[in-house]
UniProtKB/TrEMBL annotation:
<dbReference type="GO" id="GO:0005634">
    <property type="term" value="C:nucleus"/>
</dbReference>
<keyword id="KW-0863">Zinc-finger</keyword>
<feature type="domain" description="C2H2-type">
    <location>
        <begin position="169"/>
        <end position="196"/>
    </location>
</feature>
<feature type="domain" description="C2H2-type">
    <location>
        <begin position="141"/>
        <end position="168"/>
    </location>
</feature>
<dbReference type="Pfam" id="PF00096">
    <property type="entry name" value="zf-C2H2"/>
</dbReference>
<dbReference type="GO" id="GO:0000977">
    <property type="term" value="F:RNA polymerase II transcription regulatory region sequence-specific DNA binding"/>
</dbReference>
<feature type="domain" description="C2H2-type">
    <location>
        <begin position="1"/>
        <end position="27"/>
    </location>
</feature>
<feature type="domain" description="C2H2-type">
    <location>
        <begin position="85"/>
        <end position="112"/>
    </location>
</feature>
<keyword id="KW-0804">Transcription</keyword>
<feature type="domain" description="C2H2-type">
    <location>
        <begin position="28"/>
        <end position="55"/>
    </location>
</feature>
<comment type="similarity">
    <text>Belongs to the krueppel C2H2-type zinc-finger protein family.</text>
</comment>
<dbReference type="GO" id="GO:0008270">
    <property type="term" value="F:zinc ion binding"/>
</dbReference>
<dbReference type="InterPro" id="IPR036236">
    <property type="entry name" value="Znf_C2H2_sf"/>
</dbReference>
<keyword id="KW-0862">Zinc</keyword>
<feature type="domain" description="C2H2-type">
    <location>
        <begin position="197"/>
        <end position="224"/>
    </location>
</feature>
<protein>
    <submittedName>
        <fullName>ZSCA2 protein</fullName>
    </submittedName>
</protein>
<keyword id="KW-0479">Metal-binding</keyword>
Length: 251
């Protein structure tokens, strides 16, 4: 029995291995990068990163080779379509237990990954990494056409449609196409008659949140768009642009 946590083991060798976790002793060192491991088997698995060795082949004849045995088991799940891990809340199934753990945070609201700069928390580590780039100013995804950088790869994908003209999202009613799915959703509200954004002052409803924001300036008197030539202010940018033509003479 372990004197630290009380866990019992059938063999003394297993107890010795376990106690290394408490001692933080990592006697097996990688000769390439110096990283230490509790057990030799973990060192051997790690060294495949450096050697590129992938000893496990997929038995389903897809030709893919894999490194750790557990990776092979996961891969086989993708071949067979097997999803043995079911969510007890909604019934959705997953091929890997780790995917189920991440999914269940949608139901529990758990957000274990906290930002050290602002304290904002996330349910998935990858979302924390994306968020931290806003603090660091990192924009690793660059557009090959104009050089503009983006925090997320998905943002770059959307941006590149400006250059390619691609519009993959089509309205099923009028066949109008859009480059971004959110614009299709907004458009579909025209056909459905949905106006989900309601003014708390007068009850008037709008299709888009931006339209509600502009409307609310009628009640607040806010005029955020200022003419640099004469100082006159406007509630809409379009009104400012129209006004500025009186100074430039453009029609």
């Amino acid at each position: 029995q372990c004197g630290v946590c009380g866990k019992s083991f059938p063999a003394s060798a297993s107890l010795v291995k376990h106690q290394k976790l408490h001692l933080e002793e990592k006697p097996y060192k990688c000769g390439d990068c110096g990283k230490g491991f509790n057990w030799n088997s973990h060192l051997e698995r790690h060294r495949r990163i450096h050697t590129g060795e992938k000893p496990y082949s997929c038995p389903d004849d897809c030709g893919k080779t894999l490194s750790p045995r557990v990776e092979g088991v996961r891969h086989q799940g993708t071949q067979t379509g097997e999803k043995p891990y079911g969510c007890p809340d909604c019934g959705k199934s997953f091929g890997q237990n780790s995917a189920l753990v991440k999914h269940r945070r949608v139901h529990t609201g758990e957000k274990p990954y906290g930002c050290g700069d602002c304290g904002k928390s996330f349910g998935v580590r990858s979302n924390l990494i994306k968020h931290q780039r806003t603090h660091l100013g990192e924009k690793p995804y660059k557009c090959g056409d104009c050089g503009k950088g983006f925090i997320q790869k998905s943002d770059l994908t959307k941006h590149r449609r400006m250059h390619t003209g691609e519009k993959p999202y089509e309205c099923g009613v009028c066949r109008k196409r859009f480059s971004v799915s959110s614009n299709l959703i907004k458009h579909q509200r025209i056909h459905l008659g949905e106006k989900p954004y309601q003014c708390s002052e007068c009850g008037k409803s709008f299709i888009q949140r931006s339209e509600l924001t502009i409307h609310q300036r009628v009640h607040t008197g806010e005029k955020p768009y200022r003419c640099p030539a004469c100082g006159k202010c406007f509630s809409r940018s379009s009104h400012l642009n129209r006004h500025r033509r009186t100074h430039t003479g453009d029609r």
